[in-house]
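Hi P.,

Sorry for the delay on this. The queue was packed all week, but I finally got your sequence through. Input first:
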Amino acid sequence: MLFRLALAMGRTIAELRAVLSYAEFQEWCGYYAIEPWGETRADLRAGIVASTVHNVYAGWVGSDHRATPADYMPYLERSEPPPTDERALTDDELADWADATLFGMAPGI
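Then the structure:
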C-alpha cells in the first residue's frame, strides 16, 4: 500500500516515510478500502466499457453469450470456471464467426 500511496502522491517511499505518521498511513489505508485507486480500478473501468460493448454487439448478432467486466480484467485472480457442456466449434464454424466479426456478415452465410 505504501508504494501505491507514494505513486499517487508523486513522492518516493523515503519522502513518504519522512512526513507520514503511522496513524495517517492507517487513515489512507481506510480511505483506499472505501474508494480504491490505481491500475486495478482502471482495469475495472475498462472492463465495464468493454463488456458493455461486447454485450451490445452480442445482442446485435443474436448471441446469448454475455460478458462481465471481470472477463476483460487480465490480472484479476479468479477461481476455476465451472465445466460447460458446450461442444468445440469446427474449423468451418470458426471461419464463419471470423467472417462475421471481420466483415459484418451473419454467420453461416
